[in-house]
UniProtKB/TrEMBL annotation:
Protein name: Acetyltransferase (GNAT) domain-containing protein
UniProt keyword terms in alphabetical order: Transferase
InterPro entries in UniProt: Acyl_CoA_acyltransferase (IPR016181), BioF2-like_GNAT_dom (IPR038740)
Gene3D superfamilies according to UniProt: 3.40.630.30
GO molecular function: transferase activity
Organism: Catalinimonas alkaloidigena
Domain BioF2-like acetyltransferase: start-end pairs: 144-269
Length: 302
């Protein structure tokens, strides 16, 4: 059975209910004897295209580890039937990163390719396995120097309350603007997420003498996985590299809370390698993993 607590956040009912989704459809596979759910797949339809996810880091089918390949094919056939009924032009699926569930990712990738989906985009994402003594061991020499420098200059890590969100947002937005990245979440949307999903969105900071130097927005993906959604730093403190201490603090917060993996997010920009970002994540000890986007075209007018 696919238990509620095992669902990734972006498949959970409270997240789906919170989103302003166009024409949402949820496909399910039920175990024939018990009627328990073995797999589900949320899809939002817009402009004759079915998207999974609509606005989230990833989507696509989620299923129990014991699901046989023919049963997964049945779920994909449900998707085809929906596409034909709604006269869709295409279905687009952005899958979870491979390191979340290597066996499940391999099974899903194979099933999609066998079922006529084409690989539309390939991204690299980075992660760390969370261990009690693991962060400093994984840091490259440059990272250790940056961390020690921040410690010597009196920087400290903090978990923040939701009231910190406006300040955090301004720092994140300024950082992304400085680097030429879009901000896909508005301040109003961030505040709404924190109010509606307080158990899944967490804010952290690094400070010196009460002044904020770096901030992080972390998303709880599942009982075992954390995801650093946004990170920002204040320009005047950049020479002290407070972001390294921020990641260290998030890492050990995750260890203390019993999480197993920390997702650093992608190191590519529209599939093209972002060398500076990838170098930073490697410096932190991040390991690369693949993340795919698939597309299947239909011809509703034929």
């Amino acid at each position: 059975m696919l238990r509620l607590q095992d669902l990734y956040l972006f498949n959970r009912p409270e997240f789906i209910a919170f989103q302003a989704l166009p024409a949402l459809h949820t496909l399910r596979l039920h175990q024939p004897r018990t009627d328990q759910v073995e797999a589900l797949w949320h899809m939002a339809i817009h402009d004759q295209v079915g998207y999974s996810p609509w606005r989230a880091t990833f989507g696509g089918p989620q299923f129990v580890a014991t699901l046989p390949p023919p049963r997964l094919a049945e779920l994909l056939q449900q998707g085809d039937a929906l596409a034909r009924h709604e006269k869709l032009r295409a279905l687009v699926i952005r899958t979870f990163p491979a390191f979340y569930d290597p066996a499940g990712h391999a099974l899903l990738t194979h099933a999609l390719l066998q079922h006529g989906y084409a690989l539309e985009a390939t991204d690299l994402t980075y992660f760390l396995a969370l261990r009690r003594d693991g962060f400093e061991k994984g840091l490259h020499t440059t990272g250790r120097k940056k961390l020690r420098r921040a410690e010597r200059h009196g920087f400290t890590f903090h978990e923040e309350e939701p009231a910190f969100a406006p300040e955090a947002y301004q720092i994140i937005a300024a950082t992304r603007q400085r680097k030429g990245y879009p901000v896909t979440l508005s301040e109003e949307s961030l505040l709404a997420h924190l109010r509606a999903l307080p158990d899944y969105y967490r804010l952290f900071s690094v400070r010196r003498s009460g002044r904020t130097a770096a901030v992080g927005l972390v998303v709880v993906i599942s009982p075992s996985i954390l995801y650093t959604f946004y990170v920002g730093d204040v320009e005047e403190f950049r020479t002290h590299s407070p972001a390294v201490m921020l990641y260290q603090g998030i890492y050990y917060w995750g260890v203390t809370k019993g999480y197993r993996l920390l997702d650093f997010g992608i190191g590519t920009d529209q599939t093209e390698p972002n060398e500076g970002l990838m170098q930073f994540k490697r410096m932190l000890g991040g390991e690369p993993s693949l993340k795919f986007t698939f597309r299947k075209d239909f011809h509703p007018d034929l």
